[in-house]
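Lab notebook page, bench 4
Experiment: in silico fold of construct C2
Operator: M.H.
Input chain length: 138 residues
Purpose: comparison with the prior construct
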Amino acid sequence: MDIDVRGPRFGAAVTTVVLAVVLITGSAWLLAWQTLAFALGAAGGVGRSPYGVLFRRVVRPRLGPPTAFEAPEPPRFAQAVGLVFAGLGLVGYALGLQWLGLAATGAALAAAFLNAAFGYCLGCEMYLLVRRLTVRAG
C-alpha cells in the first residue's frame, strides 16, 4: 500500500532538527533517540517510526487529503541507511571518537535536509539504484 509523500518529508524535517541539535550539543543521548527512531522506521516502515506516528495522528488530520503517494519500500530503505549512519555516529560519540560522531551525524543530517527542504530522498534513490543493479545482475 502506497504512503502519503508528506509523511516521510515531515519525518525528515524533524530528523533534520534533531540531528542539528546533536551536532551543536554533542548529545549522544539525543543521537541514541534518533537511532531508535531510524530503527523503528527501518523495521516497521516510516509509518511506524515516532515521527510517522506523530504525522499520522497530529499533522495529517490538519492537512488536506494527500495528492501524491509513493511506495513504502524506498523510504523504509532510507531509514535503514539513516540507522547505519546514526549508529556509526553513536559509536563515535560513545568511544570518544568525536570525528566519527560528527562525520556520521553530519552525513545523516545532510541526507535528511535534502529530503526535508527539497523532497530529494537520497536513501530512496540508493534503493532504486540497488534495485536496478540487482535486476540487471540477476
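Observations: The two ends are 26 Å apart (CA to CA). The chain has six helices and two strands.
Next step: discuss at group meeting.
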